[in-house]
Design a protein that fits this description.
Number of helices of chain B: 11
Shape of chain B: elongated
Oligomer: heterodimer
Order of helices and strands of chain A: HHHHHHHEEHHH
Radius of gyration of chain B: 23 Å
Distance between the termini of chain A: 22 Å
Strand order of the largest sheet of chain A: 1-2
Shape of chain A: globular
CATH topology of the largest domain in chain B: Rossmann fold
Number of strands of chain B: 14
Strand content of chain B: 25-35%
CATH class of the largest domain in chain B: Alpha Beta
Largest sheet of chain B: 6 strands, mixed
């Protein structure tokens, strides 16, 4: 696996899709900051800006991971890897690890860039401990995202199909996060009366888990500087990574490659 | 005899369709094995099974004496280089970078052999050119160079001369012969250009609908192939009548051309034809081509 990992890391360092996705996220960060600084008629604190670009992180990483991992299939190099590798699990692990690493690099660079540049334009209300805590939650989100999209691409076994599936899933997750967020932010009481849109009891827990399982839901929480259940988010990410890796290994092991 | 590859009852089914149906095949070590069959006969499916891209439905194969069910099959596969359908290379990387990728995957400690490999396949001038800018022939050559990284003992080449110009085909032939003779690499090669295949192959396997219909050495094939004399005459109807009278086998090719399958006395035949008012315009001694042999074996249809 180390051999595959080394080869894939070198490939990543030469991957134009990786640099393009990084540049796109940095551009998005600038655009979001410009919007927040100019379009809002109230003072926006830095805490509401730092993770704002992460709302589109899922779509950007879906595009990058499906292109990067899918290239092995479209260019046929997967055949050379299969011929040499000791088992297919090591191939799955190496693809997941490199995708996760790339996602982590994009996330870290974009967050550092937004925080660094945002200091000059927004009121700095960020305390370092919270920033580190939220950054760590974001790391889990990155790893879950990288893991999920690389496994989908490996199972598709076709670059074009993988791009379509990953992008569809990314936008599906984005809309789902908007929906669950809309439900969860409803106050219980509105103007002194019970809010009919408020979701309580078991349904609230189910919505909460769905929101925490969804990387876009986590991004929504980070961008509002408010993570309701950090432990649950951590567990959800752990589960997403474990389940997608296990499924990836099992299904890819049986997959017929063309 | 030692075999680099042998299969026993190898079967692969796809949703009820038998791409390989009990294939029995024997590739002797050190040979160049020409694998001949029509489109969809099962050649590429076999290559995919050997390379671990797919698993057999039933039956088995052995690579260097190691069964596909054994854990050691990985080690046998590592002694193999392959090009299946299209050369596997990253378009956004240069030729040298592609070779480095393969060297990394194989876990080679150094990249010293890369210039030598580029030279071997005639790409020494293009090491720093991106593979996406290569012509098809250059890609094929780079594909072979990639397959040769790590000095494999067995090369599996699926249509390696596809898309090559005449010069490229000759160079590929010379390269394959050189690899076989100088490095003792066993080569399993499939091609639809049978004339070209017959110039390099030392053994043949003819496959049809997933079955091995005939397996033989080049010498055996030479002995089996019918010798003939192609005759151009003014009237093949007269020629047919005369040959029938002499009880000689023949095949009418066109209105003026026929193949005669016998060692004939030309003077006697020419005189007999002249008596009937038929002139002989030309004669040419011919060997039955590999293509004709295959078509006769498989019952018509282009390979």
């Amino acid at each position: 696996m180390i051999k595959l990992l080394k080869a894939d890391l070198i490939r990543l360092s030469k991957s134009s899709s990786f640099y393009l996705s990084l540049i796109a996220m940095l551009g998005l960060s600038v655009a979001f900051m410009a919007m927040q600084a100019t379009a809002m008629d109230y003072t926006v604190p830095l805490s509401r800006v730092i993770f704002l670009p992460m709302s589109m992180y899922g779509a950007a990483m879906a595009a990058f991971v499906s292109i990067f991992v899918g290239t092995d299939f479209s260019e046929g190099f997967i055949r050379n890897k299969l011929l040499i590798t000791e088992n297919r699990y090591s191939l799955v692990f190496s693809q997941i690890l490199v995708s996760c690493l790339a996602c982590l690099v994009v996330y870290t660079v974009v967050t550092a860039f937004t925080a660094g540049l945002g200091c000059f334009f927004f009121e700095n209300n960020v305390d370092t401990v919270t920033l580190i805590r939220f950054y760590c939650i974001g790391v889990g989100m990155c790893l879950a995202t990288g893991c999920l999209f690389s496994v989908i691409t490996l199972l598709c076994g076709n670059k074009t199909q993988a791009i379509i599936w990953c992008m569809a899933l990314a936008f599906g997750m984005l809309f789902l996060a908007m929906h669950t967020n809309g439900k969860l932010v409803q106050p219980e009481y509105k103007d002194g009366a019970l809010n009919p849109h408020y979701v309580g009891g078991l349904r609230r827990t189910a919505y909460g888990i769905l929101h925490d399982l969804n990387p876009c839901g986590q991004a929504a929480q980070l961008s509002t500087w408010e993570v309701w259940h950090p432990i649950r988010v951590f567990v959800c990410n752990l589960m997403a990574i474990a389940v997608s890796t296990a499924l990836g290994c099992l299904l890819f092991d049986k997959k017929e490659i063309k | 005899m030692e075999y680099a590859l042998q299969t026993d009852g190898l079967t692969k089914c796809f949703r009820g369709f038998r791409a390989l149906d009990g294939l029995a095949m024997h590739v002797p070590k050190g040979s160049i094995y020409g694998f001949v069959g029509r489109n969809g006969a099962g050649k590429t499916t076999l290559f995919r099974l050997i390379c671990g891209m797919q698993r057999p439905t039933s039956g088995s194969f052995e690579l260097f004496g190691i069964s596909n069910g054994s854990k050691d099959i990985v080690n046998a596969r590592r002694r193999t280089g392959a090009i299946i359908e299209t050369p596997a290379l990253y378009g956004n990387m240069t030729a040298a970078q592609n070779l480095k990728q393969q060297a990394l995957i194989r876990g080679l400690p150094a990249f010293d052999g890369i210039p030598g490999l580029l030279k071997l396949v005639g790409l020494e001038y293009a090491g720093n050119k991106k593979a996406k800018d290569f012509s098809l022939g250059m890609k094929q050559r780079l594909g072979i160079a990639i397959a040769l990284v790590g000095e494999p003992d067995f090369l599996v080449l699926d249509e390696p001369v596809n898309g090559l110009d005449p010069q490229g085909i000759v160079e590929m032939r010379e390269l394959l012969l050189k690899l076989n003779r100088e490095r003792q690499i066993t080569i399993l090669i499939s091609s639809h250009i049978l004339d070209e295949l017959s110039r390099v192959a030392t053994c043949y396997g003819f496959i049809d609908r997933g079955h091995m219909i005939k397996e033989l050495s080049a010498e055996e094939l030479d002995a089996t192939r019918k010798k003939s004399v192609r005759m151009e005459v003014t009237d093949t109807a007269v020629l047919a009548r005369v040959l029938d009278g002499l009880q000689i086998q023949y095949r009418i090719v066109s209105e003026s051309v026929a193949d005669v399958y016998a060692h004939i006395n030309v003077t006697q035949l020419v005189l007999a034809l002249a008596e009937e008012g038929c002139e002989v315009l030309s004669t040419e001694a011919r060997d039955e081509s590999l293509q004709t042999y295959f078509m006769a074996l498989a019952g018509g249809g282009e390979p």
